[in-house]
Each structure stands twice: as structure tokens, then as C-alpha cells.
Amino acid sequence: MTEINEPLAGLDAIDWAELEHAYGPADDVPGQLRALCADDAQARSKALHALYGNIFHQGSRYPASAAAVPFLARMAADVSLPDRNEHLELLAALAIGYDEAHLPVGLDIAGWRRELAEFRARNPEDIRAEYDAWVEAATDEGERRVREMRRAMFDHERQLAAAGAELGAYDAVRGELPALCELLGDDDPAVRAATAYLLAWFPEEAEDTLPRLLGVLDGETEPAVVATALVSAGLLGDAGLVGRLTPFLTAGEPVVRWASATALARLGATGAERAVSAGVLAELAAAEAVPPEPGVLFHEGDVRGYAATSLTLLADRFPEEALDAVTDGLSATSGPASFPVAAAALRLAFGEPGPDGLPEFDELDERQQRLIRTLGSLDTDTWRWANFWAVVRVWGLPQRREAMRAYAGMPEERDHRPDEPPL
Q1: Dist. CA 312–CA 344, nearest whole Å
Q2: What does the DSSP 8-state code read for residue 8?
Q3: Who's near 12: CB < 8 A, 6+ residues apart?
Q4: What is the reported pLDDT for 205?
Q5: Which residues of 121-158 are buried (b: 16+ CB within 10 A; e: fewer)?
Q6: What is the pLDDT of residue 296?
Q7: How far apart, in whole angstroms, are the C-alpha atoms of residue 297 and residue 100?
Q8: Exposed / middle / buried, residue 159 (Cβ in 10 Å: 0-12, 13-18, 19+)
Q9: In sequence order, what are the residues at sequence separation of 6 or more whose Cβ sits closer than 8 angstroms to the Cβ of residue 45?
């Protein structure tokens, strides 16, 4: 049976029941893809939510994920359909998972392919022996239990299939890029921005896509599109782009200046002339204090969090200034927004975490002490998250708010709500 709607041509030719997603057979995916083309906005929203749940479940991808890609790509290119930017955003998610795992330096596709090839070549028994040694090396009982659980969950065949599905989805999206690149000239600015964002994750295609992204900078008037193209160009390019992107540090729109600084930080521009490096620092610090609008798709729209990770790239030249800026930004966060900022601040303050934890508070320097006090001042909506505990635990810090305050010599808050159980 031939589909009436051209973007869905060939949908019925696929045996979706033989493909799997997060909940088993993927025979519900065709209906969801059809619903994305419906006139009913509520039906489209429900279908998109379902697809994020089954072919992109908490960042995982499945055999059905790659199979859905050509249809999503053709929907994005069909100007008669609504919500095309959302189709592009789903394609990006299917390709790379959550982008914060690849920021601020960009996607290492060569490393990804190499790691999968090495995993395929390994003997499962050797991996299990490494897990056993890892469990034995645990330094405390809590860590041992966590490691034992990780060892018990290891399933070589399942993990190999999952890794293959992830790279398969990535390559499926990569195959659609020649047609999708044309959407950089779409009439809808949201589509242009989503396209520029998508292109950031395919360095193997940069010979074709990078000139197109740079071309956007010449005529685009929408700040969010310009900002997205700048960041994407920075993720794909090399130091030869510094001169091309530097003029945007003095643009009128704050989000464009932030994007230029983000790209230049990734390209290593802080080794350039003093005015350029100082401008990069200033714009990233400004984004920590007051994140610019309109937002961009990178880092799930969390400009402050992305700026914090970018500031870690300036640690060699501006160690004190970068730490001050990120600590300032951390003091303005709450809840999940604090996670990447806290991690960046701790890395700037203490370097890579070591096995021995941190010294006594009095042995820390002034900026390190200020960071610890800032952590102890964050509200209970931040400290109730196990994710936050995991961040501070990596550096050997207390995992309860009152314990952190005690470590810093801060007064006890008797009327403060107690820490809540982890989420």
C-alpha cells in the first residue's frame, strides 16, 4: 500500500513489529509518525512525546530509531507540515543522545567508532574480570555496592546491541544531511536554527556543512539562528576560523556575543591577541551572571550551564577569573540547573578529582573556600537531588547540605528544612 502523504512513503513496507524500541515491538511507531503529520496540534504533541519515550527512551536508541529517521527527515523538509523544527530536534537527539555529553569540545565521532570496534573485538570474560577487579578496588562499602550493581547489570550481548543501535541511528541521520542542509535557507527561522544545530554533530561532513554554516553568518537576521550557526561552526572548525568568528564578539545582540565567545573558546582563541581573549572571557562571564535571550538548543537551552563548561577551557590562561565567574553563576542557580555549573566550578577550583578527596577547609585558598561556601548556601531544592550529591562526591566533598556547611565552618540553620531523600 502506497502512502498518500509523501513523507511517509514506504512506511508500510517496514515490518515494524520485528523492530524493537524501549517497550518491545515497534508496531506503534507508524501510527505515531502519521500523527506527526496530522492537523490536530494535540495529536502531534502526543505523538512526539510518545516517540521521545520509545525510540529515544532516556537517551537510548534502538533498531526502530534508525528506521524512523528517513520519515522524520522528509517531514522536516516538507514545507506543508507544521512543527518541522521539532522533527529536526528529534533527529539530533536520535543521532547523539543528550548533547551535554559532547560539550564543550564537540562530538568525537572517530573515538566513538573506535571504541565500538574495540568493544566488539573484546572477549566478554576479560570484561567481567575487569569488573571483578574494579569491585575489589572500591574504597568503602557504599562504593562497593554501587560497583557490584554495575557488575551485575553487565550483559555483553545487550550492551553490544545497544551500542550498535546508537551508532546506527547516528549514521542514519548522517545519511539525510545532504537534503537537510537545504533547510538552512528555510522561511521558518525555527527550522533554520534547528538545522544549524543538527549540523554541529557531524564532523565527518564538515567539508560540506561548515561552509554552509559560515554562509548563514553573512545574511541571517534572526539572532538565535546566527548564534546557533556560530556555535555549530565552532564545534566543527579549527583555529583557522578564529578571525572569521571574532567580529561577532562585538555584535549588538548578547546571545550572538555569547555564541561567538563559546565558539572561540572551543577553538582555543584565548591564545590569540589580548583583546580577543579578554572578550571571550568577558562574554562567557556575562552569560554566567545573566544568560542571554533568546535561548538556543545547545545544552537543552541552558546557556549558563554551557557557559560554565566553556569557561573550563579558559583555565590555563584565566584560572582565577574563570572560577570567579562560574562561582557567581552557581550562586544564581537552583535545582538541576546547578549540576553542570557546580561540576565546572569544582573542576576549575580543584582540577581533575583524585582518590584522596580535599584537604581541611583552612588549607584551601580564598577562591576555593568561596566556592565551598557557595555550595553550602545552595537551597534544599538543589541538595535534595542525588545527581547533585554525585557531583560533589566525585571531589570527595560532603553529600549533605549541613555537612558541607560544617566543613566550611558555616553556621547551622536550625530552621532550615532537612535534606530530603534522593530523587
Answers
A1: 6
A2: G
A3: 1, 3, 30
A4: 98
A5: eeeeeeeeeebeeebeeeeeeeeeeebeeeeeeeeeee
A6: 96
A7: 11
A8: middle
A9: none
What are φ and ψ of residue 389, in 5° steps? -60, -40
The dihedral sign for the CA sequence 130, 136, 138, 141: positive
State the cell numbers at 369: 573556600
Grid cell 530509531 in the structure block, residue: 65
Cell of 14: 517496514
Which residue from 344, 351, 348, 399 is spatially nearest to 376, judged by alpha carbons? Answer: 399
User: Are 263 and 246 spatial neighbours (Cβ–Cβ below 8 Å)?
Assistant: no
Q: Please say whether the beta carbons of 300 and 337 come within 8 A.
A: no
Question: Cα–Cα distance between 320 and 309 in angstroms, integer?
Answer: 15
Whole-prediction pTM value? 0.92
Q: What are the grid coordinates assigned to 191, written together? A: 527550522
Average pLDDT by consecutive 10-residue portion of the chain (423 residues)? Answer: 69 97 97 97 98 97 98 97 97 98 97 96 92 90 88 90 97 98 98 98 98 96 97 97 96 98 91 80 97 93 98 95 98 97 97 85 97 97 96 94 96 62 46
For 50, the enclosing helix (H) or strand (E) is helix 41-54
SS3 57: strand
Beta bridge partners of 21: 24
Structure-derived torsion over alpha carbons of residues 138, 140, 145, 150, reported in degrees to the nearest 10: -30
Cis peptide before 104 (omega within 30 of 0): yes
Measure the N-to-C terminal CA separation of the chain; round to a whole number of Å.
48
Question: Does residue 113 sit in helix, strand or coil?
Answer: helix
pLDDT of residue 1: 34
Q: In whole angstroms, what is the distance from residue 87 CA to residue 97 CA?
A: 15
Q: What pLDDT does residue 423 have?
A: 44
Q: Which residues pair with 60 in a beta bridge?
A: 57
**DSSP string of 146-177, one letter each residue:** HHHHHHHH--HHHHHHHHHHHHHHHHHHHHHH
- The answer to whether the beta carbons of residues 216 and 225 sit under 8 Å apart is yes
Grid coordinates belonging to 12: 508500510
What is the predicted pLDDT for the residue at 294? 83
Instruction: State residue 200 phi and psi, 5-degree precision.
Output: -60, -20
The rounded distance, in Å, linking the Cα atoms of 28 and 35 is 11
DSSP 20-32: EETTEE-TTHHHH
- Length of the chain, please? 423
Q: What is the pLDDT of residue 421?
A: 47
